[in-house]
């Protein structure tokens, strides 16, 4: 407690020095208001208000550190630099399966973090036209396309694609192919970009994305520049925008393969990247040959690992905890290669049901084994555990969450309300821990 008040006093002194500066900015005023909020016990305005559900153990929703928190505190120091001095960017990568592809959970985290104070919005993250693959996504952005495309996902062992950080790809030989991105669709906060990173590869160097701009009644063609370090192309614009259409110089017989879009900018704030594919497990992500290279674009300061539900969807006794942990070790080595000292939050599996016979579904008894494996990984890598399995109520708690309107009838996935509640809970757990240092 004394440490918390010492930190608050330091923050207050910082805020007072900022407030004494002439011509202080709106961001500075926001910092001062936040510092005052921190000094008011039980009135931290950074936290999200939460509805009450009797199926949720609110006292168990915090972060757990089995051994050491040096990396997490290092992440908080970076957050301090952003919130108090706006002197650096903070990057988060949230990766998983269907819980992340839906993007209700991850987008709630993205929105909460960027709403902490004005001016925190940086890069929106990795986008893809999921409609090409006839699969779901969060419709807070719109992506339309023309032409004929062939798609594949990293869950397909025989897919003929070099997958990257998005875990999904689409190829075309159609000379009339195009992509239209509208970044903000009825949601706040709003994002913008001054360049568009087109991730992917082509059959030859003659293939090139481009955009057509209207300037003073004249049409100007903007060709994307190849990125020889990270692959793909970068399409620059003169001003910030939230939409564009990408065409392709694609001669007959050539092929273009898309693995994602990142609408980039040079703004200082929080960039929240999310990667989720329905059905993805740890080996699924290890099959993404371009993932190590793509992580160099993200350079995460914090990784939120949420892979495990599909790994555990096997008969009781068949889950191999050592193979599971070894797979995670390989993923973490990829992260460490681009972001040494990165902080990690391991999200345990939620209570799920699996079919044991044609007529019988029961709670998956592998969940406690995965929970134990995550605590061991967190101990090994100095990470945190966010124990969803515990605060849900443990084994066989899913029916109560379904009855509360928080889970779907499959007793695996959450409803949109449930996912957004998880986003608020994880955000609050992070902020509570941040302020309790």
List the helices and strands and how they pair.
Blueprint: H1 2-19, H2 26-38, E1 63-64, H3 70-85, E2 90-96, H4 98-101, H5 104-114, E3 142-146, E4 150-153, E5 168-172, E6 178-182, E7 193-202, E8 208-215, E9 218-223, E10 225-226, E11 233-241, E12 243-249, E13 256-264, E14 270-276, H6 282-286, H7 291-298, E15 302-306, H8 321-338, E16 343-347, E17 353-355, E18 361-363, H9 367-381, E19 384-386, H10 388-392, H11 398-403, H12 416-435
Parallel strand pairs: 2-14, 2-15, 15-16, 16-19
Antiparallel strand pairs: 1-19, 3-6, 4-5, 5-13, 6-12, 7-11, 7-13, 8-9, 8-12, 10-11, 17-18
Short account of what is shown:
By secondary structure, the protein is an alpha+beta fold. The protein is 32% helix and 24% strand. The chain is built from 12 helices and 19 strands.
Counted by DSSP, the helix tally is 12
- The order of strands across the largest sheet is 1-19-16-15-2-14
Distance between the termini: 9 Å
Number of strands: 19
The structure class reads alpha+beta
Supply the CATH architecture of the largest domain. Answer: 3-Layer(aba) Sandwich
Q: How helix-rich are the residues, as a percent range? A: 25-40%
CATH domain topology of the largest domain: Rossmann fold
Let me know the CATH homologous superfamily of the largest domain. SGNH hydrolase
Low-confidence stretches: 1-13, 18-22, 26-43
Molecular shape = globular
The CATH class assignment of the largest domain is Alpha Beta
Average pLDDT, all residues: 91
- Structural Rg: 22 Å
How many structural domains can be distinguished in the coordinates? 3
Largest sheet: 6 strands, mixed
Strand content: 15-25%
């Amino acid at each position: 407690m004394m440490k918390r008040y010492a930190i608050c006093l330091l923050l207050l002194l910082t805020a007072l020095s900022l407030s004494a500066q002439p011509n202080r900015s709106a961001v500075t005023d926001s910092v001062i208001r936040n510092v005052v909020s921190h000094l008011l016990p039980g009135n931290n305005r950074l936290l999200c208000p939460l509805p009450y559900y009797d199926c949720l153990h609110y006292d168990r929703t915090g972060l757990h550190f089995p051994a050491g928190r040096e990396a997490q505190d290092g992440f908080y120091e970076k957050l301090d630099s952003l919130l108090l001095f706006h002197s650096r960017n903070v990057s988060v990568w949230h990766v998983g399966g269907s819980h992340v592809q839906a993007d209700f959970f991850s987008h709630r985290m993205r929105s909460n973090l960027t709403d902490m104070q004005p001016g925190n919005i940086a890069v929106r993250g990795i986008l893809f036209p999921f409609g090409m693959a006839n699969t779901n996504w969060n419709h807070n952005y719109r992506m339309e396309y023309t032409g004929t495309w062939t798609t594949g996902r990293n869950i397909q062992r025989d897919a003929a694609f070099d997958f990257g950080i998005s875990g999904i790809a689409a190829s075309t030989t159609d000379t009339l192919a195009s992509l239209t991105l509208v970044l903000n669709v009825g949601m706040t906060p709003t994002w913008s970009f001054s360049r568009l990173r087109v991730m992917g590869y082509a059959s030859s160097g003659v293939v090139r994305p481009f955009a057509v701009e209207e300037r003073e009644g004249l049409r100007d063609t903007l060709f994307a520049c190849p990125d020889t370090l990270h692959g793909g192309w970068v399409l620059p614009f003169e001003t910030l925008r939230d939409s564009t259409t990408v065409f392709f110089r694609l001669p007959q017989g050539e092929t273009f393969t898309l693995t994602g879009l990142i609408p980039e900018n040079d703004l200082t704030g929080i960039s929240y990247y999310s990667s989720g594919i329905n059905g993805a497990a740890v080996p699924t992500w290890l099959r993404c040959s371009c993932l190590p290279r793509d992580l160099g674009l993200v350079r995460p300061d914090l990784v939120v690992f949420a892979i495990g539900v599909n790994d555990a969807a096997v008969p009781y006794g068949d889950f191999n905890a050592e193979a599971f942990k070894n797979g995670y070790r390989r993923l973490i080595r990829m992260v460490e290669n681009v972001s040494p000292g990165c902080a990690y939050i391991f999200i345990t599996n939620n209570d799920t049901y699996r079919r044991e016979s044609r007529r019988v579904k029961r709670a998956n008894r592998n969940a406690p084994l995965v929970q134990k494996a995550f605590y061991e990984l967190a101990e090994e890598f100095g990470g945190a555990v966010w124990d969803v399995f515990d605060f849900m109520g443990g084994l066989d708690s899913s029916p109560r969450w379904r009855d509360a309107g928080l889970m779907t009838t499959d007793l695996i996935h959450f409803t949109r309300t449930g996912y957004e509640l998880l986003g608020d809970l994880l955000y609050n757990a992070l902020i509570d821990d941040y302020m309790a240092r």
